[in-house]
Design a protein that fits this description.
This protein is an alpha/beta fold. It folds into two domains: 215 residues, Isopropylmalate Dehydrogenase; 152 residues, Isopropylmalate Dehydrogenase. Helices cover 38% and strands 17% of the residues. β6 and β7 form a beta hairpin. It is globular and about 65 Å long. 50% of the residues are buried. Keywords: Metal-binding, NAD, Oxidoreductase.
């Protein structure tokens, strides 16, 4: 199998995306496993490369391309599909004395980040890249630029015309998928309906298979404390979640416990290997355990030792994996951003692209 081409959107140009991309692509083993192509602006990537050289001693070059066919994929030279949206004079920093940009969310940053994502989606739909990897964008900034989406997931769904999709967060062997994400908690409760829960169970099962888990073991978290205690604390488990589980079981999907699992114990069990993936009912029910495990702050030294984890959108016709953190505006530009989450996302993108190619190669040929 050929090494997959990863289309990596640069993220907000005034966030941490350019810097962590330079750091991630300074590792030669990345080029041993894939062919990375950054979609963004050469000006931002060149600035980030200068900062990385000053702060971390990383020595890489940046090369502009205007078509995937122009990329060389050579270690030491980062190929950037240059959209020319951010000019050198738009970057407020001084790479000789790196410090945070301090710009925060801006319309220019939002417009640029949005266009990088649109371009990488187009390249994937055209079959020019095998997987897409996204750096962080600011929801506030893209809305300032007039693009009214609540995040990457919704952009991908819109531009790929996908109606049934969900977010999967993963760190090592802990994986979660969400019934709802970027809505209020009150609305999230209202969205716990049988059909949606069943769709997400199906997507979770297919998503595990897409990364090579042949017989996925699935848990479905309850919504209410103690799964409602037989209706004392809420009836969603009885009226919506259990019927979805019953339907999934009838389809041969392995929901291990055959009933909703209390949300205060389901993640401990998942970490213990009981399940390959957990279906959660709303955004923070899934995000909190993943980030408690993947984000490690060094109190003594005052910095993050690890910002790990990956965000994968399941149900799309193309592969999308993302960092599991924000733009880090407060520190962007100072040379100290942690690239581990981007490395994790690239690993997932490679894994899913190879599994997809293997499935295509192994599929029986049609005939008459």
């Amino acid at each position: 199998m050929k090494k997959p081409i990863l289309g990596i959107s640069m993220g907000d140009p005034f966030g941490n995306g350019p810097e962590i991309t330079v750091k991630a692509l300074s590792d030669k083993t990345v080029y041993d496993r894939c062919r990375p192509l950054v979609v963004g602006d050469v000006s931002s990537m060149e600035y980030a490369a200068r900062v990385a050289r000053k702060v971390s001693g990383i020595d890489v070059q940046v090369r502009a391309v205007h078509a995937v066919s122009e990329a060389r994929f050579e270690y030491g030279v980062i190929d950037v599909y240059d959209l020319g949206l951010v000019k050198s004079e738009d970057i407020p920093g001084d790479s000789a004395d790196p410090k945070p940009f301090g710009l925060g969310a801006t319309a220019l940053g939002g417009e640029a980040a949005f266009q990088y994502v649109v371009k990488v989606i187009e390249l994937a739909q055209a079959g020019e890249v095998d997987a897409t990897i996204t750096n962080a964008l600011s929801k506030e900034a893209i809305n300032m630029a007039g693009h009214h989406y609540s995040g990457h997931t919704e952009i991908y769904a819109d531009y790929t015309h996908t109606s049934k999709y969900t977010m999967m967060l993963a760190h090592e062997d802990l994986r979660v998928v969400h019934v709802s994400t970027h809505v209020s908690l009150r609305e999230a409760c209202d969205r716990v309906k049988k059909d949606r829960v069943l769709d997400v169970i199906r997507i979770a099962n297919a998503g595990c298979k897409a990364i090579g888990i042949k017989e996925p073991k699935i848990a479905v978290a309850g919504l209410n404390p103690h799964c409602g205690e037989n209706g004392m604390f809420g009836t969603e488990e009885i009226e919506e979640i259990q019927p979805a589980i019953d339907a999934a079981l009838a389809e041969g999907i392995n929901v291990v416990e055959k009933k909703p699992t209390p949300p205060d114990t389901v993640f401990s069990k998942a970490l213990g290997g009981w399940y390959d993936i957990v279906v959660v009912m709303y955004h923070d029910q899934g995000h909190i355990p993943l980030k408690v495990k993947g984000f490690v702050y060094n109190k003594a030294e005052g910095h993050w030792d690890a910002v790990a984890g990956v965000n994968v959108t399941l149900g799309l016709p193309i592969i999308r994996a993302s960092v599991d953190h924000g733009t880090g505006f407060g520190h962007a530009g100072d040379g100290h951003a942690n690239e581990l989450s981007l490395v994790n996302a690239m690993d997932y993108g490679i894994r899913m692209a190879l599994a997809k190619e293997h499935e295509a190669v192994s599929a029986p040929l049609g005939g008459c």
